[in-house]
Amino acid sequence: MKDINIDNTPLSEKIAETLRDYIMKGNLKPGERLTEPKLSAMLGISRTPIREALRLLENEGFIDIYPRRGAVVSDITAKDVDEIFVIKTKLESLAARLAVENISESDIKRMMEINERMAKYSETKNVVNLIKLNAEFHNIFIENSNNSRLIKFIESLNKQFKRVTAYSFTEAGRIKKVLEEHANIVDAFVNRDPDRAEQLVDLHVKNGWQFIISRMNYKTSN
Fold this sequence. Notes:
β2 (63-66) and β3 (70-73) form a beta hairpin. By secondary structure, the protein is mainly alpha-helical. The chain is built from 9 helices and 3 strands; from the N terminus they run αβααββαααααα. α1 (11-25) packs across α3 (47-60), α4 crosses α7 and α8 (172-190) packs antiparallel against α9.
């Protein structure tokens, strides 16, 4: 396994980036235990930033952490992704439609600013921050749906969704497309067009779905 590249990014995020890459490429298998001593020896780094990195990966759904057993690489299948996205597509597009009449100008501006920040992080493929900002972008219009039950359904779904999101931010071509799709969604809110907002979010989520499945299929065939 390669050595991690240390730069100005926090060490825990660099470790998480390396381990995420290993998991996505299949170098670390589902069910494999990730003990702190093992990772410390493998990466040549002390345990404290490794512990922080594992927490990041747990939040993203790449690993599960169990009492007395420690961190274990979680498993996700194409069927899991299909089941998540078929629901996510319908719920988020509905949230976008409902949000059109509620969203404020300041929230629309926030969405624009988030997309600009994502563009900057895309230059270095900073997956941790891209995932965070992507979630913030979507959460703005989801919360503006003003439907508490819908919001809770989507929040529950997104806990299972974080891991697969990473696939969308590992290739420059898909990152560029995500930013373009976000900009189009913002325009729909600017123009207060519920049909357009619903249509664009539906297309955006489906495009992500197709891309993620294609990357999972590529990984399993190599």
